[in-house]
Amino acid sequence: MFVIQVIPLIRATKIDTLSYYSSVEYPLGTFLNIPIRNKDPPAIVMEVKPVTESKSALKNASFTLKKLPEQKPLSVVPNNVRLTAERLAEIYPTSVGALLYQLLPPGVRSGDYQYPLVSSLIHNEDPAPQVLTAASKERFVAYRSHIRSILARRGSVTFVVPTYAHLEQARKNLSQGIEDRVVIFSPIDHKEEQRKAYSAYEDTSLAKLIITTPTHAYLDRVDLLSIIIDRSASDAYRSNLRPYLDHRTALMTFAKTTGRSIILGDILPRTEDEYKRRQEFFNTYESETKRIAFTSPLTIIEQKDKSTPEAPFSLFSKELQTRVDNVLAGKGRVFLYGARRGIAPVVTCIDCGYIFRCPESHTPYSLIKTISKTGNEERWFISGTSGKKLRASDTCPDCGSWRLRSRGIGIQQVYDEAQEKFPRSKIFLLDHLAGSTRKRAEKIISDFYECRSAILVATQMALPYLSESGINLSAIVSLDAARSNPTWRADENIFRLLLELREMSSQEVIVQTRTEPDSVLDCAKHGSIEVFYDEEIKLREVLNYPPFFTFILLTWTGDKVTVTETETVIKTITQGFEGNFYNNPNSTKAKILRHALFRVNTQSKDKPSLMAKLKHLPPYIKIEIDPGRIV
Predict the structure, then answer these.
(1) Contact present, 159 and 172 (Cβ < 8 Å)
(2) pLDDT for the residue numbered 267
């Protein structure tokens, strides 16, 4: 008889380990189904001991162990993956089981597929991350060279992209000449496609190039020598589910644990990665990039006009309208970037100041317009956070006023005005509503590229679908709206966006702004990456931002009494560490959204102590490490 300890694979669980009696000595890492409250979720065996070694502990225990039904093991997780989860548990205040749940592919943790049978091997590659700063074409040239050098050594490579929308671009750029060695895992594939991918992955007769999103990035192979993270600055690498794992951190930990090389590539890697490269914690892949030269110039248009009854507000300046007209007259294509979806991101009451908010997420509703089957225009409130949708109100629920006003610039407003300004051209709209599925988004992009003298009005979601050629002119209709995103990475994100637009536009990129141009625009105009990093690193050091400090953000919600009681619990548990406590701007009187922000110096030795304390917080408190937003 044995006593086995298992980690339940339950999403967001606070349970670290459970113990059972077992008549079978299961190998470490074995997947089993365990009885918990009339359910049998999957779990992984973490420790096995004979009962004779645990007699005294069992006699003194205040509980009795259940007997685990004898069963055929589902599969076995490799030691490398288990060790990676254990190391990540030192970085994230959560259990090893919760981390394993994030690392394992969805089909494996659900029991649809058995984890491929592999033996874990520690390699001798240099695991120090290598930073590659280059435009897309140059990056893929470097990737192809690296991949072929690894394949020549009979080693495999895992190539990771942030979303499924990037998979096709990676396949086209990397698979030529090695088609028989390419394995692609997509999170939206059907079960039959997934089975074929697993079958190809398990074939070790040839070294493979595995192209995947983070969902399958931790599959282990005995010949896997290198990991590449493309578009390494993408926010999509951060999980939206507890424990809010950053897959870049997890993959670097995986590489270090297994002795594999890892490359972080982007047109503008995160400032934290650049700082570590300068401090020689990270290496430089190939040569250092100080400036990127583009064929298309960046033009800044300062809009000084003010709306009057005779001349109402216009999104398109005369300069922008003229340039778009010239491109369309030459049968070219134009991309108009809008930061927010809908007609407007916020709707308010002029008389009392009421803001229409989603009751579930407390975030402001976006106002959108749709056309019904009968051809009538319909207006809706939609929450981008919760997905809640309802008919737009005509009056204020607080004061009954009819004087409602939309604030901010939404993409549908850009689309509507573009139809008025350029009535002879075909205009396409792509946002999360029009492109709600991959096929719909790809169809819109395909139609746009097939059409000459066309305009695409789109949000950030369109960028992965756009090729490096085919667009003559790109324009950010309102830079002020694009920069209004409440993130401490705002300057870095807008600079990266401008570089990406310059790369994919053959003639010109235009930026309209109603504020004075600053150094970010100047750096984007000259492609001066080094200068931008110099200024950004200095600013972050002054503000105590990453990479000099780690942000640990706690979030909870409730009425005034509940929020106050929770805050007392947090202060008690984190005694000895100073946190900033404040309300989120989206809070209401009925429901308060409260934050506690802890800044921990990256050189401090107290971080593990704080992490240990945070593990004792109740599960209804959300804990994020270095989130994109702290308000």
Answers:
(1) no
(2) 97
Report, as an integer, the average pLDDT of 396-425: 83
- Under DSSP, is residue 187 helix (H, G, I), strand (E, B) or coil? coil
Q: Report the interhelical angle of 519-526 vs 529-543 (nearest 10°).
A: 150
- Around Cβ 266, how many Cβ atoms within 10 Å? 23
CA 155 to each of CA 221, 250, 258, 304, 473: distance values in angstroms, whole numbers, following the listed order: 10, 21, 14, 59, 42
Tell me the DSSP string of 466-487: S-SSSEEEEEES-HHHHTTS--
Nearest alpha-carbon partner for 230 in 150, 145, 131, 155:
131
The set of residues, in sequence order, having a beta carbon less than 8 Å from that of 291 and lying 6+ positions away, is 526, 527, 528, 529, 530
Quick one: how far is CA 621 from the chain centroid? Answer: 21
8 Å CB contact between 16 and 95: yes
Q: Which of 228, 233, 235, 186 is nearest to 209 (CA)?
A: 228
Alpha carbon distance 90, 73 (integer Å)? 29
Identify the residue whose tokens are 């192209």.
211
Tell me the sheet residues that pair with 33: 42
Give DSSP secondary structure letters for 104-150.
Answer: S-HHHHTTSSPPP--------S--S-EEEE--HHHHHHHHHHHHHHH
Residue 58, both tokens: 């069992």
Closest CA to 367 of 376, 357, 353, 380: 380
What is the rounded CA–CA span in Å between residue 202 and residue 286?
32
Count CB atoms within 10 A of the CB of residue 137: 11
Residue 589 in contact with residue 534, Cβ under 8 Å?
no
481 contacts 408 by C-beta, under 8 angstroms: yes
Write out pLDDT tens, residues 476-493.
988 887 887 778 999 999
Reading the block at residue 513, the tokens are: 């702004």
What is the CA 475 to chain-centroid distance, rounded?
A: 25
Q: What are the structure tokens assigned to 476, written together?
A: 């950010």
Phi/psi at 296 (nearest 5 deg)? -95, 130
Q: What is the largest CA-CA distance in the chain?
A: 92
For residues 559 and 384, what is the distance between their CA atoms, to the nearest angstrom?
24
Q: Which residue(s) pair with 580 in the sheet?
A: 597
Mean pLDDT value across residues 451-476: 90
The residue ranges of DSSP E strands in 134-220, in sequence order, are 156-160, 182-185, 209-212
pLDDT digits (tens, 9 = 90+) for 274-297: 999 999 999 999 899 999 999 999
208 vs 506: CA distance, rounded Å = 35
Q: Give the 3-state secondary structure of residue 25.
A: coil
- Three-state SS for 166? helix
- Which residues, listed in sequence order, are joined to residue 601 by a DSSP beta bridge? 549
β-sheet bridge partners, residue 43: 8, 32
3-state secondary structure 375-431: CCEEEEEECCCCCCEEECCCCCCCCCCCCEEEECCEHHHHHHHHHHHCCCCEEEEEC
Phi-psi region of 185 (alpha: psi -120 to 50; beta: other; left: phi over 0): beta
Residue 115's contacts (CB-CB under 8 Å, 6 or more residues apart) are 31, 75, 76, 77, 78, 104, 108, 219
- Separation of alpha carbons 170 and 75, rounded Å: 31
Mean pLDDT lowest among 19-23, 38-42, 611-615:
38-42
The rounded distance, in Å, linking the Cα atoms of 175 and 8 is: 38
> What are the distances in angstroms from CA 470 to CA 18, 334, 370, 417?
57, 9, 29, 24
- In the DSSP assignment, the letter for residue 39 is B
